Amino acid sequence: MSANDYLLTQEYFRKMSQESGFQIETQQFAEYLQNIDELKYIRQEFHYPKNKTLHGVDLNIINGEDECIYLCGNSLGLCPKSLRSIIDEEITKWQECGVQGHHYGKRPWEHIDAFVIDQTAALVGAKPIEVVSMDSLTTNLHLLMVPFYRPTLSRHKILFEEGCFPSDRALIESQICFHGYDPKTSMLQAAPREGEYLLRTEDILQLIHEQGDSIALILFSGVQYKTGQYFDLKAITEAGHHKGCKVGFDLAHAVGNVELKLHDWNVDFAAWCTYKYLNAGPGSIGGLFIHERYAYEKDLKRFSGWWGVEFKERFHMDNNNLPLIPGARGFTLSNPCVLAVVSLFSSLEIFHKVGIEKIIKKQRLLTGYLEYLIKYKFGSDINNSSNHSGIFISIITPENLTSRGSQLSLAFSCNGTEIFSELQRRGVVCDFRQPNVMRVAPAPLYNSFVDVHKFVSILTEVVMLLKK
């Protein structure tokens, strides 16, 4: 199925409804979609939490042995079942071999970062020379600002989206101050139009066109954390380069979630974490991308460390000016945590087996189904809704499937905090962002159409209960 927009997805559901004989809004239809899902078996490769193991769940109203409704992969992905054995292999090697584990075994530690390069490159649309797994997201962004934020008196601004994740704002402000400029005049924010949640691409491009001569760096999110909007990275990069700006992206909510072609789009740099859609574990290792055109630029400004030196020279210990590894690996400062890298390796093996194309196809169907049910149950269109609660829920994430990933952000016509609390009591795991947005993220690797239907059913139950 070619699911390029919302209408095509709804047409698919209507077709499946006719084939199955079930109405789209019924549980039987959700079960039918689940049965024909070619990725349904992948859920078995993850530890899926049960209600009884969660905090805040009221076991007087739900069965503790049932699986919860986990829709929070945008914050922390679930644990792959293969992870424990892979980590145990490395711990056993440490126990049995000590320091020799650096040189021997299935994954010698001296080359541990190389074991995740090819699959990482495939996920972000890069060449292997352009990516490396190292450090953490914000640390990597700071390191990337060394070569790519070089402010001058006439070109010192950093353009970013209003409402970006707080760590990005802190990063931007601190970098501007470090270079001796004033954030009040050097921070340039692209904001939605009044009364709107989303940034229009044409407004971003117009801002770049108007102020590009004073912009040193454009640093946007790939997917906006609160609204779930997937920005047009290709168009932003082209516009920025046309005005002489460097262009980079924070891909925390994008990697493993949306289609990325960083090399083809000529993005200068990007960085990401791996604990959301990549399921590598809480606080796991970060990653970064630097375009191949900088790989052999000897005068590129950077902070360096010994792990970025060519392997054959690394252990000479003669303190000579040693050659750095070309490309992204030359930015590595220290040897990475082995357990963090193999945690990422465990998840990447699943991505490699499934393929990002199939993941995105299912993602669009999952979010399309969630969108249909929310509009059906809580929409304001009396012709296409069965809303009897008097409470309206609007979806502030783009309707266009190519402009979003796995996350739909819901805004309530009432105070949503009480609704969120009651959902938690009933074993629903999602998250809430002030002032009144609930983020719901059905991850295609381990979530099902039945999960989506159960979520909307519980949400309906809660809304009707609180209305009384």
UniProtKB/TrEMBL annotation:
Quaternary assembly: Homodimer.
Stated role: Catalyzes the cleavage of L-kynurenine (L-Kyn) and L-3-hydroxykynurenine (L-3OHKyn) into anthranilic acid (AA) and 3-hydroxyanthranilic acid (3-OHAA), respectively.
Keywords assigned: Cytoplasm, Hydrolase, Pyridine nucleotide biosynthesis, Pyridoxal phosphate
Residue runs in coiled coils: none
Binding, pyridoxal 5'-phosphate: 137-138, 165-168, 221, 250, 253, 275, 306, 335
Keyword Cytoplasm: yes
Pathway per the UniProt entry: Cofactor biosynthesis; NAD(+) biosynthesis; quinolinate from L-kynurenine: step 2/3; Amino-acid degradation; L-kynurenine degradation; L-alanine and anthranilate from L-kynurenine: step 1/1
Organism: Hydra vulgaris
Major localisation: cytoplasm
Reported cofactor(s): pyridoxal 5'-phosphate
InterPro entries: Aminotrans_V_dom (IPR000192), Kynureninase (IPR010111), PyrdxlP-dep_Trfase (IPR015424), PyrdxlP-dep_Trfase_major (IPR015421), PyrdxlP-dep_Trfase_small (IPR015422)
Aminotransferase class V domain segment(s): 195-376
Lineage: Eukaryota, Metazoa, Cnidaria, Hydrozoa, Hydroidolina
Sites bearing N6-(pyridoxal phosphate)lysine, chain numbering: 276
Protein name stated in the entry: Kynureninase
